[in-house]
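Hallway conversation turned thread

IA: we were arguing at lunch whether anyone had actually written out Peroxisome biogenesis protein 12 end to end. Turns out nobody had. So, for the record, here is the sequence (388 residues) and right after it the structure tokens. Reply here if something looks off.
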Amino acid sequence: MLFQVGGQGTRPTFFEMSAAQQLPASLRAALTYSIGVLALRRPFLHKVLDHEDEFFSLLMLVLETHSLRITDASFAESLYGLRRRTVKIRVKKEDARPNSGDGIQQSGLEKHQRVLSVVFLVALPYLKSKLHSIYNKEREARLQASLWGNGDETVEDAEYVSGGESSLVSREATIRSRLMKKIQKIMFVCYPWLHASSEGMSFAYQLLYLLDATGFYSLGLHALGIHVCRATGQELMDTSSRISKIRSNERERLHGPPWLKALQRALLSCTYTMLDYAQTGLIAAVFFFKMMEWWYQSAEERMSAPTVYPPPPPPPAPKVAKEGIPLPPDRTICPLCSQKRANPSIVTISGFVFCYACIFKYVSQYNRCPVTLMPANVDQIRRLFHDM
């Protein structure tokens, strides 16, 4: 069996595919940040944040459907000039000529492949996000139960035992809650294995793609039989004509009285304009989010960094009193005994150095510095272990 890519564009690099896969996450973070900032002054936008998964999935459903319809690529792949192609593998016969074109042949996407691509691009990430949130809630509930005890079951049991007509309603609610808890417990046990299997398969496919051992970047592409390749120059040039042809066919299929057709054309024009500028606007939102993230991160680093102040200047040198003992020209000589200093000690109030025995005796008798005549006591005498 011969594997070779036909002339439908070259194979994208691993880094291009990784960037295309990470773009929806960056887009979601940018939109969440922008809505969170706007919600500070418009509290009704918190409802959008409460249903963040549904809002983002609906947005991606519109974008992915539109992109697959006009470019045969996902929203992120179209930004990098990539296209999805159906892979058809044929076995090369021995008696066939070498240039017969056997091997992998690529063609445009079929309708069911576009639908399944939307499922893999939108529905599966939404389901994964919901399962992750259920797992986190169950984990927090178990953590709280281990710390504070499970008091909810006692309340439910009390409602279940209570008699009267109201007990029927509470009994149904109790059965539903117990069923939901059982489902959540099952998901709590199964989700880590499902998540590990999914991440392991993704890692394996990405590693094989990086090593040129497979042409499929993910398990979903392999299951659909789709290769992602770079668009040729002719394909990029034909995209605009294809879009205009699709839109003209949609306008021709309009039915109804003239005023209804005019209204439908106006709505279609607004929709086309929004879809045309959605790509540019969302990329600008991602860029703005990254810029603001860098700005606030650098500001936080500046605020958290310790302020470095210059060292304070040294205090002015003490003045020698007119009635005090004069300083000898040699700094190693003690001013009191006029000998070389032994056991040098300093008077902290003035900073002059003497022999320990000389200065201790003088300060004990006069309670002052012999040079500056400033008041001092024996507690202000410090021994120097390194004499200059």
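OS: looked through it. The two ends are 89 Å apart (CA to CA).
IA: good, adding that to the notes. The longest strand covers residues 82-89.
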